[in-house]
Amino acid sequence: MSSIALLREAPLSLHANPTRALRALMLAAALSTAAVAPAVANPFSHESEDGNYTVKLGGRIMFDTDSYDGVLNRDNDGERRFDTELRRTRIESSGSVYRNWQWVADLNFNDDPDAPTTEWHALGIRYTGFSAFSIFVGRDKEPFGLEELISSKAISSIERNYFTEATDVDSQPHHGIRLDGQAGPVGWSAALNSPVDRPQQENGDDRIAFTGRLFGAPIHDDTRTLHLGAGFTDRNLDQPIRQSGFKLDIAETGGELDSSSRLIRQDRQAGIEVMYLNGPYSLQSELFRKDTPGAGPEPDGTVDAWYLQFTWSVTGEPRTYKAAQGIADIVKPAGALGALELVAKVDRIDYRADGRDHETVTGYLAGVNWYVNPNVRLMLNYIHVDSDNLTAPGEDTTADVISTRIQFAF
Hints:
This protein is mostly beta strands and 410 residues long. The chain has two domains: 43 residues; 285 residues, Porin (Beta Barrel). Helix content is 10%, strand content 54%. It has four helices and 23 strands. The strands form four sheets. Strands 2-3-4-5-6-7-8-9-10-15-16-17-20-21-22-23 form a 16-stranded antiparallel beta barrel. A two-stranded antiparallel ribbon has the order 11-14. The protein starts with a helix and ends with a strand.
């Protein structure tokens, strides 16, 4: 069967058999690549002769393994456990109509054997005809957190930082409306979103979160970039809810580390971003604060978190910078043997409630990434985890994690 026939078959079988549709689309992609790759840089994009219509197809598959012990496997006396997961399987499409109208439609396949699902990941329309800003309506990420906004295809470690992984802003993407603009050297974003799977307002209406971000690059040339940014979000609670200070999965396939919970009446979060790129080296850090005043007799509490990440491309390729979005892009291998990148990262999250012990998690990560070619990346992470006041007396408080990922993206 030809690749065109496979592409025609996929939409018809999507509702009845998502797995069959996914196989058809991926196989069509592979056949198309084999047929036209020598002559065309991106065989999955097309533009009409007059430039009024464009379309681009893509996708990603990420297969993970995790081996962990100690505090991450308390249910089995801290013994070492091994898990696997098809972490992401996604078909992506985007395009434009008459230049100023853009669309995106990304379909995600969940491989959970107990509850397999097919759902839209990102879906919406953007209008770019205004000079001061663009406007997006649909399902998209909230503009908060540098590492969260960097694509999963381009982050340097298998999992994002602890604050992003442990708070509700990570339940991405969310339905809403978002404005993105540029004021001289400063970029900005502002959004109203309805958080996914979060409590509604007291009257039953959807709760709307307010989120904004400012960013810029005071240094940005052929070899160096200094990125600075700041973000804020108000989760807009109008009634008390019970919430853990953080809910953390250091190994995504298992190994939860959750803090204690309280009844809170407010949830406001702020973050500061710093990133420096210099040839094959990069340094990236964020600081976060989450304020959650207690409801009724419950104490006030805060969550403070930070991480510091260093990367070195041993083969010399740089991490590139997308100035319009204020994010880093993936390393692009230059040689026939691909690119090799070393990663070191320290991550810490600290939950404090008045009159209670501080509950903390600190992780020390060492990793290596091999960019085999522009479409394939192999990742290996080792993480040593220390925790305080999260376990019962006598239980392990540390863990060692070994995680791997095979990533295919086109």
